[in-house]
Amino acid sequence: MKKILFLALLGVLSCREQRGSATLETDFQKELNAEFKDATTSPLTENDLKTFKGLDFFPFDSVYVVQAVLTRTPDSDWFDMPTTRERIDKYRVFGILKFQIEEIQFSLEVYQSERLMETEEYANHLFLPFLDKTNGIETYGGGRYMDLEIPPSDIITLDFNKAYNPYCAYNSKYSCPLVPIQNYLDRPIKAGVKSFKKE
Length: 199
Prior knowledge:
Elements: H1 2-19, H2 27-37, H3 46-51, E1 65-72, E2 79-81, E3 89-101, E4 104-113, H4 114-117, E5 125-130, E6 144-149, E7 155-159
Antiparallel strand pairs: 1-3, 1-7, 2-3, 3-4, 5-6
């Protein structure tokens, strides 16, 4: 009987682990917190840095790790993407990402920065900004970002647990691209970084 109870409990725990509800810090969370605690890399104001203990994250959830089909748009034009300040950045639509979250179909545009393409380190960088129903409630009102790399195939992994806030969510001195309205997901994405709460 004890063995049956143990196996039943083990099965429940395994299901929970598969869902990804563990509260332990992920590597992404550790790296981001380390960046924010370091005065040489942190976007925080001097006052906020003094009391900073760590960012607030949703618990890791494997539901928000999805495989997307990338349809490339090689002939797209460069356009001016507005930012939170006067600066204008040149971007183009690199492609369209189509994916499912809990059997609901979604589509997002993924972008390439003209400025970043000129640097060797970021030549393959893709920029994925998005809005969702948590904005202004649990997450930053202006939306969040994800960093991707150009994949060798037309399949790319989207891990929304790595969604982060733009620097202007922490400090008004930064200029951050505004999320295009077409990248609105009509559901709450409860993954990644939450809104910043000052101590």
